[in-house]
Every structure is written in C-alpha cells, then in structure tokens.
Write a structure and sequence with these properties.
The complex is a heterodimer of chains A (318) and B (300). By secondary structure, chain A is an alpha/beta fold. Chain A has helices spanning 45-64, 67-83, 85-93, 100-110, 134-148, 152-156, 187-201, 215-224, 241-250, 264-272, 274-277, 288-292, 294-297, 300-304; strands at 13-15, 18-20, 27-31, 37-41, 158-160, 166-174, 177-181, 204-208, 234-237, 256-260, 280-284, 307-315. Chain A has a single domain, classed as 3-Layer(aba) Sandwich (Aldehyde Dehydrogenase, Chain A, domain 1). Chain A is globular and about 80 Å long. The chains are: A alpha/beta (318), B alpha/beta (300). At the A-B interface, helix 1 of A face loops of B.
C-alpha cells in the first residue's frame, strides 16, 4: 500500500487532430472515474469556429477516399473501442446517480466500485442509468455503419424511370460538415449513433459531447487518434449546449446538424438555422429502447439526412 | 559603405510582442477595415486569365456586395500582360494598377530586358511597379549592381508616361540574415526611392515570405531614413499573411514603429490574395454575428 497519488488525465478538446484547451481558457468542473474532482474544457464560440474550419479542411480528403477505405477506418475505430471497452464502460457509468438498484446493475458489468454521490456530475442533472451495456452497443453500431459505407449508395440512390430516351440515375454525395449534438444519455451510444452515419458517407463531423457525461466522448477522441481517422475528420467539443446551439444554428459553414433529445428551445433554434444557409437539420427524440434498436438507429435513413442527392440525365442511344 | 546591423533575437522578440496586443470591438472593426483598404489584391499565376483579373478588379472595387461601406482595396497586382485588362476594369475608380516587372520573380534577365518590361507595363496602364532585385548579386557582395538596377528602374518609372510609384521587392526569404535584409533595404532606399515608393518583402514565390521579424527590420530602416531625411518610404509585406488577426498584428507593428502617419494605403500595403476573404469574414461576423461559408466568398 502506497500513498501514491494517481495521475489523473486532463481531457481536452479534439480539434483538427490536436488535443487543445479551449481558446477561452474556461473549464467545467466534474469528477473523474475515481471520484476525484476534475476539469473539462468548456468550448466557446471560437472553439466551434476552429473545429468547423478543421472539419471543412478535412472534408475533401475524407469524402475523396474510397468508401471501402472509410469502412476500414471506422472498423479500426471499433477495434480500438473494443480494446478499451472497460475504460469506456467505467466512464459511461461513473456519472450514474446514487440510486441503488440501477447502480448495482450497471456496476456488475464493470466490476468497479459502486457509484456514489461524489461522482455525480456537478452543474448538470444526473442522467438515468442504462440497464444495457452501451459500450458494446456503440461498438456494434460503429461496425454496422462501417458496413454501410460502401452499400448505402445502392440503397438510397437508384435508377429513375423517366418518359424519354434518357438513362436517369440518382446518387447521394456527402453534404459536407456535419454538426452532431449528442444527447445527455446514453452518452456514448448516442454520440456514436449520430457520428457514424455522417462519417461513413464521407461527411466530416464536429460533435458536441453529452453535457451530463462528456468523458466517454473525450475517450472516443483519443481512440480516433490511434485508429487512422485523419485529422479534422472527427472533432469533439465539450461544453454547454445553451451556449453553443445558437452559434451552431447560424454558422453558414455547417451543412447539416444531427441532434437528439434536446429541449424544445434548443431544437427550435437549431431548426431555425436551416433558414440561414439551408443546412439539413435533424433533431431526433429517442427512448433508451430506441437507441438500442438497430431498426431505429442502424438504418441508412440516418445517412440520408447528411447527403445531397445528385440526379444525372444521361442521353442514351436507342 | 557600411550598413547597420540587426540583433536578430531582439528583433524577433520585439516583433512577437506586437502579437500580444488585445484589439477588440470597435478598434477591431476599424483595424479590419483599414487592413482591407491596404490590400493589394494579387494574382500572379501562370494560369491567370483576363476574366480572372476582371473578377479580382470587381472584388477590389466592392469587396463586400452586402456592405458597400466596406472600403475598396488599394490596388490590383498582376503580371504585365494583364495590366491592360486591369486598367480597363478599374477605369473610373481610384484603385491603383500594380504590375510586377523586371523579370519577376527571379530577376535573372539582362537589365535592358527588365527595364523594357517596366516601360511596357507603365505604358499599358500600370501606375505602380513591383520590381525584384538581383538577390544573387547582393549575396555575392555586388551592392553596386543592386544600386544601379534600382536607380535605373526608378528612372524608367519617372520618365515613362504618367509615371509610376516603385516598390522594390527584396525577397527576404532568400537573403538569409536580418543584416542582409537591413542592407538590401538601405541600398534600395538610398538608390533613389522617393516619397511614397515602397520596399516590399517578398514575391510570394519563395518560402518563407513575409514575417513579422523581417517586416520590422524594414520598418525600422524606413524610420531611420525618415529621421535622417524627412522622406517617407512605404512598406509592403507580401505573401503568407492570410488571417485577419495577422493583419492586425502588422498594423500594431506599423503604428508602434512608425506612428499614425504610416497607417494609410499610401505608405503601408499588404500583398495578399487570401487575406481579404478572412477580413471580410471577420467583418461579417462583427456585423451580423454569423460566420460565412466558403461558398459565400470569392475564390481569390
């Protein structure tokens, strides 16, 4: 037994492949997996701007890769998540409230000590504990979308019947920079379910992590950096939705928004952003059961929300 | 002839200090607008076409179609063959037509050819000439040759047509040391530059192009010349200045080195192509609280 103090990690923002502090210098108080007080970056409007710039810069390269290669890279990310599943699991449940019954159920899976009052995230209401292993589900979801990368186009594109001597076909193309606003809960599964459709089709992503449990998102960012995801393709911010949704909404270089389980006001504000630059805005409301449901969350219908359809009329000799 | 020497470490230190000033709100807007009015909108590619130059001229006249109070650019800077196109497109405005000449960017041509280049550019309508010096001559100690080519080019600028202001490009990225930058600046200025002529850092074809450090050395040379003679020479950093924030740092450096007198397009310019878009983006943010998309702006 030593009196050693453990070295706790400082989680930073992931912007353009670099782990940076918020340019504002602000931080959010929280607690880490061991129950120690910890600080997270509180992303500002300018961090958002920088992340969008990074995502825009990475778009050409990412969308220009073959679908097969994007699939490989997403699958690689899933591999890395599998390897650090325990750490991710601890991070997703540590924010659980101290209500006994559910805490026990989840604690069983991680074989960690019970969660306690101490570990409740400060400043934000504690989310419900999930009675399912969201890490496994998140990994599987990523693998599912890795699979969709070179298949969705055949499903949501197609050949159109036209009355004339033309061959007419429609193919989807990634829309550009997608902003993901992750739900408070489930923090990891919710985030992965929203970023995966955008990444697999070639969009680059700026993700705002769950406000209640941001640490799983930070860990996912670290995994990105060891899994061939090019810099700027996935950028991760931690901070307050109330501060950032307005700026997301009016930013003209964000082409699409995927969000879930927001309050009415934030959802309406994001939707109003469509009036600014015709960005595609999707705000979903899903129950824990629906987050787990592959029919709900592993369909190319989600990819359809972040692509543009290109229709080509091809003159055909008859 | 002896030249002043420069303490590189202290010059860099001093230059870096200008980037620490905090410029916000109204001062920032004023600075952004001032920077925009000092831009020489530049296109110097082999692929430049008349229409690209016309587009650039339209942008120089009305940088922001949504806000006509945004000031025009100072000049449009092109290759000699496109001077006529630019002159035509800018007719009726006060925007200058600048032409690179004297065998830009290398300057490795016989002096007669280079001077003829200048003459033709002025006759085609340029009223500002951006000349390059023979860096190879300078580095091999042949200062007289530099002195001679600057003086000859100045003569042509004065004697041709309606005349043209001269900007002398030192190409600091090839001069190795700040001492050489200082020496080249002194030679160029003493070779016959007059009020409102410029010394300019770079062609934009060599990396590194403009840096805060070399620009400071040049500003200080201009200051020393002014204190000695009362003649005001302009300075134009060119190449590598892409962000509005960088432009503000440069303006701070000009103000704190040469004073308010130099904060005018007649004595300070930015040679840039991408900078104006970032300035416009920042101005729009200040005006509307909205960040522009790439497709909101022109390609150059």
């Amino acid at each position: 037994m030593t009196n050693r103090l453990s070295v706790t990690k400082t989680h930073k923002l992931l912007i353009g492949g670099a782990f940076v502090r918020s340019e504002s210098g602000r931080s959010i108080e929280t607690t880490d997996a061991s129950g120690m007080p910890a600080h997270l970056c509180q992303a500002s409007r300018k961090d958002l701007r920088n992340a969008v710039e990074a995502a825009r810069g990475a778009f050409g390269g990412w969308s220009g890769r073959t679908a097969y290669n994007r699939a490989q890279i997403l699958y690689r990310l899933a591999e890395m998540m599998e390897g650090r599943a325990d750490e991710l699991r601890a991070a997703t449940i540590e924010k659980a409230p101290a209500t006994r019954a559910p805490a026990k159920r989840t604690a069983k899976k991680s074989s960690k000590k019970k969660t306690s009052k101490k570990t409740i995230a400060r400043r934000t209401p504690a989310p419900k504990v999930h009675e399912f292993d969201e890490v496994e589900l998140a990994i599987d979801r990523l693998v599912a979308f890795a699979g969709w990368a070179d298949k969705y186009e055949q499903v949501i594109g197609g050949k159109n019947p036209v009355a004339g001597p033309f061959y007419n076909f429609t193919s989807p193309e990634p829309t550009g920079v997608t902003m993901v606003v992750a739900p408070d809960t489930p923090p990891l599964l919710g985030l992965v379910s929203l970023i995966a459709p955008a990444l697999c089709c070639g969009c680059t992503v700026v993700a705002l992590a769950s406000e209640a449990s941001p640490i799983p998102a930070c860990l996912l960012g670290e995994l990105c950096e060891t899994s061939d995801v090019p810099a700027g393709v996935l950028n991760i911010l931690t901070g307050f939705r109330a501060e950032l949704v307005h700026h997301i909404s009016v930013h003209r270089d964000i082409d699409a928004v995927l969000a879930a389980n927001l309050d009415e006001e934030s959802g309406a504000m994001l939707r109003s952003g469509a009036g600014e630059n015709l960005k595609r805005v999707t705000v979903k409301k899903l129950t824990p059961r629906q987050w787990r449901d592959p029919d709900e969350c592993e369909t190319p219908a989600l990819i359809e929300r972040v692509v543009e359809m290109k229709t080509i009329w091809h003159p055909m000799a008859t | 002839m002896t030249f002043s020497t420069v303490d590189r470490v202290m010059a860099d230190q001093r230059a870096a200090a200008f980037a620490t000033r905090s410029i916000k709100t109204e001062a920032k807007v004023a600075g952004l607008r001032m920077a925009l009015s000092m831009v020489d909108l530049t296109t110097l590619e082999g692929a430049d076409s008349p229409e690209k130059v016309r587009a650039l001229c339209r942008k120089a006249i009305t940088p922001d179609p949504f806000d006509e109070s945004v000031p025009s650019a100072a000049a449009v800077c092109v290759y000699p063959t496109l001077v006529g196109v630019a002159r035509e497109a800018l007719r009726g405005t006060s925007i200058n037509v600048a032409s690179v000449a004297t065998g830009f960017p290398s300057g490795q041509y016989p002096l007669e050819v280079r001077l003829d280049d200048v003459r033709r550019a002025i006759e085609a309508g340029a009223n500002e000439i951006d000349m390059v010096i023979s860096r190879g001559a300078l580095l091999s100690g042949d200062e007289d040759r530099i002195r001679h080519e600057v003086a000859s080019t100045k003569d042509v600028c004065v004697s041709t047509g309606e005349g043209a202001h001269l900007k002398v490009i030192l190409e600091t990225g090839e001069l190795s040391t700040y001492d050489n930058v200082r020496m080249a600046s002194e030679i160029a200025i003493d070779a016959g530059l007059t009020e409102y002529d410029f010394i300019k850092t770079s062609t934009g074809k060599v990396a590194p192009a403009a840096t805060m450090g070399v620009t400071l050395v040049m500003l200080e040379t201009v200051r020393d010349h002014f204190l000695k003679t009362g003649v005001r020479i302009g300075v134009k950093p060119a190449g590598g200045i892409r962000k509005a924030k960088q432009a503000l740092h440069y303006l701070v450096m000009v103000k704190e080195t040469l004073g308010d007198d130099w904060l005018t397009p007649e004595l300070f310019r930015f040679g840039a192509s991408g900078l104006s878009n970032d300035l416009l983006r920042q101005l729009r943010w200040k005006r509307e609280g909205v960040y522009s998309a790439g497709w909101d702006q022109t390609v150059s």
